[in-house]
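#data-curation
PF: Archiving a pair of folding outputs for the training set. Convention for this channel: one message per protein, sequence first, structure tokens after, nothing in between. First:
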Amino acid sequence: MGIRFLSQEWPAPEPSLEQYLGACRMNPHFILYAMERLKSPVLWIDADAELRKDPRGALQEDMDFMAGRMPAHRKRTWHVGTLFFNNTRPAKALVALWIQHLDDSTSDEAALERAWRTGKWDGRAAALPSSYHWCRGKFWLRKEHQQMRDETVILHNLSKSPEKASTLAKMRARARAVAKKTGKSPKEVLL
């Protein structure tokens, strides 16, 4: 496709909740590193995603940040599997704010949401088309979804590793335990 890319291989740690979250918390650091090193916009795509078509078509050069919007019923604003950051001061400021909201118990998605909700960011943002963040699931194979499959630019959730499934189950269990102690819902804890 003629696309410049930058990838970084990390040592494979023993699978655990802490290691999984630790790896996720590296994402904004890597994005900022890539922006500074490449001196160009960065399209972040999770490692367990498949690039099915050239993704440059929907990226808007007049935007500082683009991502897939979560459905209205979800508490979070953005999907983090595909993120576009233009090489602008506001985009770098958002990544820096995202990094500031990371801590030892927060996922990258939760930290981005906290950064977004501060209102301290003055950039321009837009939603990526849903074809940039389709997730493979049982519905994916249904005949009536052929058009969706044909239009998909980036397909997510390709990892079938038992470690990822186990880690996600541990995250949900921990959220339920914290929710029980604090009186919050598990969804509020994960946010």
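PF: Second:
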Amino acid sequence: MLKRRDFSHLEELKYADPNAYQDVLRSLVDAEENLLSPRNKVTASAEVFEDAVTGELVSPLQLAKSLAGMEVLPQSGVDIGYRNSARPRKAAKGIYQGDIGVNTPAATVGATPMLVKGVSRWAGDSAAAAYVNPEGLDLATASKKDIQAALMGLAASTGDGARMIQANKRYDIPDEYVDEFLEYAKRGDASLGSVLKNTGLIVKGQNRPNDVVDMASGKRVVELSPEEQEAFYNQRIHDLTKVWLQGGGRALNEFENDLSVPSNFYNMEHNVPFDLGNSSGFAESTPNRVGFLESLVNSEKGEIPPEDYYKMQQLAYLAHKKGVNIKGVKKASDIESNLQNMLTIANPESKRGKQFPEAQEANNELLSKVFTYPTSRMVEDETKSISDKSIMESPSRMAGTNPEAARALEIASGKRTESPGDSKERALVINSGGGNVTIGEGVLRSNGNGKHKNGNGH
């Protein structure tokens, strides 16, 4: 029988970060009672997406089972098989459907949303710093996680949804893999597909399902034939599932190796806000369905364009380093006014007619730095050579055959050329506008377990 415990020391966290609060609570209880089996404690992306022996991407069925977790006998804690959430008649016929949300916490312990108003909680994290200041990263000594975070930041700075999807990509997932996974995956009592069908379209005070425009026809979806409507929503489900699977089941711009199942805690993100892109149908285009964003960040970003929100995160980080604590985002007609408003609230330039020239000078310096940040390049050194640094945790974990580093850097930088010479001498040279970055052949060559059974993605 569970004992009553006092968690009053977590009260501040409960209101500041509900997601982290739930996971700390879960961990504290489990540490004392050992309620969960080892399999049910898995929250790391790689542990469910990859075969423990070969490192290859597991089958869609195995992935659904791993996400759903094991059935555990009460009290004994003994695993008796993967939990099957298919209805009794289907289960009796040997059909498997796993509730992928049942054993995955809303967020992992220690994961910190990169909220502008919560900058003090993430400014000291090296990956977060790499995200908002990618050109300040020393590739020679940076961790793999920090390099990936920098790539995510470079993509976010452009506001380009396709680049952001690419920067968050961990696996090459074929379309047929997505379709098969959807056959097995549930969330709660509904199929995952039915959950994702309208996610991001059900918003209080709005009638998005009635307003949403199909980019291909230029018509509102409700004006299409039943067959066309079904095709639209099937594609929407497929796109969202594929983006999530390609990222290893992680949230958008998640630096850690943590699973983030689409839910109320991880909201579907229209990169360019729905209200800004719906008239042309762009809001529901494939590259604008960038994934699932942590709910508090999603709420704070709201209708702010992605590249502007990124600058707000940059400002919060830079200001924090100068001892100025940004209180949150502000909305004005242009990004410069937004940032200025954020600064003057955090660091007032005047009060009751009295001027504070030092504050004004500090604010101007911070604004200037944000607008001159060279986020189009990784480093300033024109011939920076990295011959022994792997971008991802292990290139062999990719479901395709090309290392993620080359693809992500190519997308982030916009140009690439290959150096002459045989395979031992070849390297990727990135022309990034402000200086070239050379990735040596040792990084571009996978040193893992070879090709993966699922081949290249679509």
